[in-house]
Amino acid sequence: MILQISIETLPVERKSYKIQIATGGWIRGYRNAVVRISISAYLLTCIVKGEYILDLYFLGTGGGVPSKERNVTSIALRMLAERGAIWLFDCGEATQQQILRTPIKLSKVEKIFITHLHGDHIFGLPGLMASRSFQEDESPLAIYGPEGIRSFVETALSVSGTHLRYPYEIVEVDSEGTVMEDEHVTVRAAKLEHGISSFGYRVAEHDRQGALDAERLKAEGVPPGPLYRRLKDGEVVELDDGRVIHGSDYIGPTKPGQKVAVLGDTRPCEAVVDLAAGVDVLVHEATFMEEDREKAHRYYHSTTLDAAKKARTAGADALILTHISSRYQGEETNFLKEARSVFPNTFLAKDFWSFEV
Fold this sequence. Notes:
The chain is α/β, with parallel strands linked by helices. It has helices at 41-49, 95-99, 119-122, 125-134, 149-159, 214-219, 226-232, 270-276, 293-298, 304-314, 332-340, and strands at 16-22, 26-27, 30-31, 34-40, 55-60, 62-63, 74-79, 85-89, 109-113, 141-146, 168-173, 177-181, 185-191, 199-205, 236-238, 244-246, 259-263, 281-285, 319-322, 324-325, 346-348, 353-356.
């Protein structure tokens, strides 16, 4: 069965695509069968581009309290193509309700990173954990957050008599540095400047091996097949005609891993630059516009220009503003104008908006 897709661009507002595959063969007794499948826009993009894609999906982009346009904070980092998983950053009230309107599945949520313990960042966590269990999902869940997150979660579950079907682990982040690492990615935390303990997280993929030059191999008379996998793994292979070829000679340049920084609430501080140094995208709060700089400082928050200046200093490729105060409804154009005057590649997040890293 061959799936051939030729799509230049995919609208991000489409949640899924219907694909028809003509098999030209037999499937369970049906000759020349036609198979129709549904595939998410995210995974279809991965197939078309032939590469692994990180994708940020904004579930809540408001600051402090929900509004008609913006729910309180939660961001999904979709890593489905390689890990088959989704990570959440913060889980404000009604996050699970927001998820119902998206392609995201609770069963795919593998890790949740909490930046700080203000209610607009954590009040949705116990309910989401309970609903994940009601779906009879038994895959483990890991939660990372400042000291106190364990007490909050365990108290909420205990008082409500909630029993989870799956194992969960809570890791309290009490110092800066690496909070988790595996064969694919490293997550590092740094303390920000807020009224209570607040952290930012830097997610850095490890560099990936370059692509196998299949066209060159074909041109040199090496037929496709299992041999290509061995060459991709760097093996030295002897061909039927006696030639000896080295897999490493056919591997392209190493692909640098993608890097994302997601911050909690903060005043401008040097930790922002450290976390965001050279990232593909920095997600930074912009609770206030520049005209309200005094209020931003008083309440330990940042302005549009604060975020833009830090992105520029850090050498980030892109900046996404979020955690927008409800007082600024209808002023999106002014938000972007202020930030882009300092950092042109700035975007303003809104609920249910996604960004390909």
